[in-house]
Amino acid sequence: MSEVVGYELKGRVAVLTIDNPPVNALGIAVREGLVTQLDRAVADEGVNAIVILGAGRTFPAGADIREFDQPTREPHLIAVVDHLDSVEKPVVAAIHGTALGGGLELTLGCHFRVAAPGARMGMPEVNLGIFPGAAGTQRLPRVAGLDHALELIVLGKPIGAAKAKKYGIVDAIIDGDLRGGAVAFAEKVVADGTLRAISSEPCDGIGLSEDHAATIEKYRDLANRRMRGQDSPHQAMDSVIDGLTMPYPDAVAVDRKRFELCKNSVQSQALRYAFFAERKASKIPDIGKDVAPREIASAGVIGAGTMGRGIVISLADSGFPVTVVETSQESVDNGMVEIVKTYDEMIQRGRIDAVEKDKRLARITGAVGFEALNDVDLVIEAAFEDLDVKKQIFGELDSIAKPGAILASNTSYMDIDALAAATSRPEDVIGLHYFVPANAMRLLEVVRPAKASPDAIATGMSLAKKTGKIGVLARVCHGFIANRSRLPLVREATFLVEEGASPAQVDAVLMGVGMPMGPLAVSDLSGLDVSWRMRQSLANQHDPEERYMHLADRMCELGRFGIKAGQGWYNYEDGGRRPVHDPVTEVIAMEVAKEHGTVRRDISDDEIRERCLYAAINEGAKILDEGIAARASDIDVMWLYGFGFPRWSGGIMFTADEIGLGKIYQRIKELHAEHGKLWTPSPLLVRLAKECGSFTR
Ligand code: CAA
Fold first, then answer.
1. Closest protein CA for atom 31 of ligand 1
2. In a domain, 285, yes or no
3. What atom in ligand 1 is closest to the CA of residue 130?
4. Quick one: what percent of the chain has pLDDT higher than 90?
5. Are residues 460 and 548 in the same domain?
6. Domain tally for the chain?
């Protein structure tokens, strides 16, 4: 008898319970268990119907993704699904939690589906670089119609039980006792003699009509816009077309091969890596689950600028009462006006209604002076990036904040150890580095100063989760993980313009690797003056042996701060936001090149790609080697969530492993010889290249 699939009789109904925590994934033991218990129910003459459900928190949330890296073992899930619908007794799936991917496919093999009101159903396989591989692409269009099926299969977003009922995926929603309700449903089906619904059988909706072709076109277009560069949505659609145009067994046979190709593709490996990387990031090697985060019942934010406002909104949106503090009533009022504007935009986009806006606004209080923060559990400082200003703020906070309050800085690169030292309670000081716009961006870089207590760090990580963000831990260094690893890419981008590339060429090459925007267009958007001020503040630390970003400085000296100035690397005509080629940039680049003896030349796309990516990878290796990042995958999670690096690439460290560290090291050696100290290879990269090792495997 199988341990992971239980068998129990309720009158004449056999109840099969899948019990494989945490998410009842359909690994080999579950598949074997299901076949065994199904056969038992079929053979049992006392049984006239079967119910399948999940123990614990959910119906199976899909195939066991960890098995994808191993040879597939029989029975395949598709065989289980096919076996289910051939059973001559009615089989009812009873869904709660999340029936995802193979989990939903399993229910499609059942003849009926009932669900708890809170259940969610979906086919998120495209997010793993694959498509529903257990005949979901054949069966779901027959059950739900092509449009609804493609919505689930191509966009990969789950739907709730009510919608699933509307789409015909669910036959009934059961309030209260799901198990009892499912058994009663099965008994009624038997009593009424309801015909078993077999989702592999041909139906009216099969065949490639003109309407079908138009629907497929609509989803191809959506996939191109929302998942640029990703193959799996298109593979999924091809598989659906097979299901519409071929008899079920033929389509399934063709798709078995397509599925294997998809599963073994680099994109799928990268997406699976990203799935686990994201979950690993929340686990801190030396802080166990026994370290409880501190309770945060209220929060305060210092500064109502762009960043401060975003943080306030993020906290209020997640239910925290939050006090935003400024130096004058006028600044408080201006901040509140902008916050209201953001909520109005959310209403316009249909994301919230007016009632919700009022609820969220009611959680926000504006105040002048730090005294207003004397009773909050968490203070996040989002003041101007000036170390002395921040030290003073932390000194004052120390005398005002209540004992045990977390004192956090949102600085994106400064020395948080120095801020902690400005207080008498360094154990309470952490970094919470948000990304613009803080209410929308999902990354939160939690920075760990040397003296921070484990529970202060656990609180930062837990805050990320509570506010719907992915928290990733970094140790203190200039720029932490995210900005430190990205700076070399931006630096090379500007050097390449000085050497002869156009901003548009550089940006196009990096968009070609899947980045949503080129780095120079991003600089124009965020303002070239931000990093200019940072370079100025570090001027006395500049190593003369390292090449300097003269061109970026010159752009700022000329007031070319980017979009807000109407000109930066590009021109923004008539106050627009669309970057337009500006010949003046080339003239400035030529002047700067002449002043600094830079030889201008034609630059190939390959050189741009290599220099920008390899500079970031080399820095990533240094960050890893120095222990600033606990693992290479944490660096990748930062790139995926902070900089929109395509998830199907896995991130820069995964990409490096894909290219091969030996090859990268050879090229970095050449660049080091050619361009000097900034290209000093990371000792870790050198070592791994020699050992044929990797960062992420
Ligand atoms: N396989 C293996 N492990 C899985 C898993 C899966 N399908 N889904 C989740 N897990 C693991 C997670 O890695 C995590 O493990 P750790 O605790 O060791 O980190 C644990 O289960 C809990 O997961 P979450 O932390 O994500 O828990 P959550 O409550 O926040 O979310 C969930 C639950 C919504 C199910 C989410 O885990 C999820 O989206 N899982 C993936 C679902 C999916 O993609 N299913 C399709 C799989 S592919 C497939 O089915 C192919 C096919 O066609 C046959």
1. 23
2. no
3. 51
4. 94
5. no
6. 3
Residue with CA at minimum distance from ligand 1 atom 29: 23
Q: How many residues does the chain have?
A: 697
- Is residue 264 predicted with pLDDT exceeding 60? yes
Q: How confident is the model at residue 2, as a pLDDT?
A: 46
Residue 309 has pLDDT above 70, yes or no: yes
Q: What is the pLDDT of residue 203?
A: 83
Residue 277 lies in a domain: no
Q: Using one digit for the tens of pLDDT, what is the confidence trace for 57-93? A: 999 999 999 999 998 899 999 999 999 999 999 999 9
**Host H or E run for residue 425:** none
271 CB burial (10 A radius; 0-12, 13-18, 19+): buried
Q: Which atom of ligand 1 is nearest to the CA of 102?
A: 50
Span 259-263, mean pLDDT? 95
Token pair of 526 as six digits: 């965020």
CATH code of residue 249 = 3.90.226.10
Is 278 a pocket residue for ligand 1 (Cβ < 6 Å)?
no
d(CA 143, CA 345): 38
- Contact (CB, 8 A) for 69 and 31: no
- To the nearest whole number, what is the mean pLDDT of the chain? 96
| Domain end among 462, 479, 496 | 479
CA 474 – CA 433 distance, rounded (Å): 10
| 3-state class (DSSP) for residue 498 | helix
Is 356 among the domain residues? Answer: yes
The backbone torsions φ and ψ at residue 23, rounded to the nearest 5 degrees and listed phi first, read -125, 15
- Could you list the active site residues? 105, 125
- Judge if 110 and 192 occupy the same domain: yes
* 639 touches 651 (CB < 8 A): yes
Say whether pLDDT at 37 is over 90.
Answer: yes
Question: Over 50: is that where the pLDDT of 105 sits?
Answer: yes
Range of the domain at 578: 483-691
Residue 545 lies in a domain: yes
Per the CB < 8 A criterion, the answer to whether 442 and 468 are in contact is yes
Local confidence band at 206 (pLDDT 50, 70, 90 cut-offs): confident
Query: Is the distance from CB of 126 to CB of 236 less than 8 angstroms?
Result: yes
The owner of tokens 């689950």 is 289
Q: Are residues 360 and 251 in the same domain?
A: no
- Beta pairing partners, 434: 444
In this prediction, residue 1 carries a pLDDT of 45
Q: How many Cα atoms sit within 13 Å of 331 on the Cβ side?
A: 16
What mean pLDDT do residues 363-390 have? 95
- If one residue of 18, 23, 31 were mutated to test the ligand 1 pocket, choosing by the most ligand atoms within 8 A of its CB, it would be 23
- Which pTM does this prediction carry? 0.95
Res 423: pLDDT: 98
The last residue of one of the domains, among 218, 238, 263, is: 263
Alpha-carbon distance of 628 to 638, in angstroms, equals 13
Structure token pair of residue 79: 């065989």
